[in-house]
Amino acid sequence: MTFNDFLHAVQHLEHLRFFDAEGGLVPPHAHLTEVALVRKHYVDCGGTERREEAVSLQLFVAGDTDHRLRPEKLLGILTAASARLGLRNEEVLVEYQQASLSTFGLDFDGMSFHLTPKFTNCLASDSCGIPAEKLPRPKNTCAPGSGCC
User: Fold this and answer.
1) Sheet holding 113-116, edge to edge
2) What is the extent of the structural domain holding 117?
């Protein structure tokens, strides 16, 4: 999901609901602790220089169960971050605490947001010597009906 798609979706919601990658509801008292523009400049295993940019949102769950992030407050945070960080229409990533801090993609089903698994990949499999049939294939970890598939 792109940043503009995320903004558009939030504008049309009365309540925010996020589901984790296993289909469980992220507690409704979760709040957004940061909006970041993440720049990644790297060389892949085949020697190709690459650059990527993404908008990273960090969801945090604390003991403050009375806290509720409303769509209008989230829009205010996102609008301020966009102006200060110079956000364009980058892909949205979500950081969410599980056994360790994990990064997810984001989908929207018209009513709720779904954290989607992200996977590593060899970007230069044709030049680094790993045959395509030896590359790992991500397992589908989505629960049926969860909306993340």
Assistant:
1) 18-19, 113-116, 101-108, 91-97, 49-60, 31-43
2) 3-134
